[in-house]
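Hey team,

Filing this mostly as a record. A colleague (T.K.) asked me to run one chain through the structure pipeline before their review meeting, and I want the input and output archived in the tracker in case anyone asks later how it was produced. No errors, nothing strange. Just documentation.

Input sequence:
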Amino acid sequence: MTALTDKTLIDVAACIRDGSVSSEDVTRACLARVDRVDPLINAFTKVKAERALQQARDADLARRAGAPLPLLHGVPLAHKDMFYRAGEESACGSLIRQGWEASTTADVLKRLDAAGAVTLGRLNMSEFAIGPIGLNAHFGPTRNPWATDHVSGGSSSGPAAAVAARLSFGALGSDTGASIRVPAAACGIVGLKPSYGWISTAGTMPLSGSLDVVGPLARTVADVALLTGIIATPADDRLSTPIHHAFFEAARGHPEQDRSVRIGVSRDYFRNGLTPEIESNVDENIRIFRDLGYRVHPVDTSVFAEAAALYSTIFGTEASLLHASTLDERARDYSPQVRARLNMGRQVPLELYREAVGKRTHLLVRVMSEVFRDIDVLVAPVISRAVPTITEIDVGDGAGMLSVVGAFLRLTSPVNVLGLPALSVPSGFASNGLPMGIQLIGAPWSDPVLLRLGRVHERAALWTSHGPSIS
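Output structure:
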């Protein structure tokens, strides 16, 4: 018999709605697993057990009373500790924010609340979401559930590890350069970096205003599609706006295979610097699409290299300006690597930042004309190497910092610079036993297309049926 925590989000939501299992039983199962497993992986910074159980009991009472049931009625979730809830602490992975209470609630949490979700607690993250690896000098690293001596990826480290370890059925993360896709790939789950501007960031910790997006992580593409539909659309507009309705369509049943979708594979930028097994893995997953009848086109992706070159200027300037006063007043309360990266951003001339922002629009026009003229979806790796151990990657602010951080950002950051959507899906396992992932990258506002194609890939590849043995 399948354990309650092994069910997908959509399956457990259906069971709660039809009364075959109670929300309280599901929530207790999640909390029991958190008690057993989280000491091994450090995904949670705060567990709200009593509140979660009360929310679950209320959900069960509403179902028995015959009340209309929303889409996530009684389903336990947990979220990165940067989504504000009025009157509650949100430490954002830092010493500086410990004890700080929000005065407002994030729009995305309001939408999940309205959808009936139960909240288990707050999840670990890289300090102030600065760091694609999953280390945190204050709260400790989040460890990969597949092998606890390895990193989980960051900065949405806790969300990815919690979902992969079956502690939560889904989670919210953020992505400013890698922070949903890298941990999703490293932990063998699904994560969507949506088109810039589609999902509200109000009430969410800012980092780099022109790069930040909010998105969901879950075990399957259908689960991610459902969560995206909920957080992308106001409750009173979900079934009336066709473009938003497309998210819910992507979550339902078995999507019809649309072989008219043109798939591209990089000739250059997304091929350069890959280890042989990552390159082979991309080829194997391209072969899956070919076997399904899709036409695959080699494309010139050199424009992404130009976008990647702008990332550190845009990110560094915006993040350091946001932290300017705190850097002056409490510099020692930042970890060495985060402090070093923010101080590097302070050295960027404002004119160079303005020039980078100006180039971005020109590059997006080129991406549309040079890449997405002949294809609809670009398939690329997420990380250029197998997931490393914590020991080999924990370089602090030393000489290797820029190369380590840059290696994790190289394949994902240009997507943020250009505001494109990208879906990270599991693509197999490396020789060290850790998961690998590919990203499906699309033109702006093509998020539903990526989700439908991701579901087709998922059904053919079956990688999301695998889970870590940690218990």
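Quick notes for T.K.: The first strand starts at residue 44 and ends at 47. The chain has 17 helices and 13 strands.
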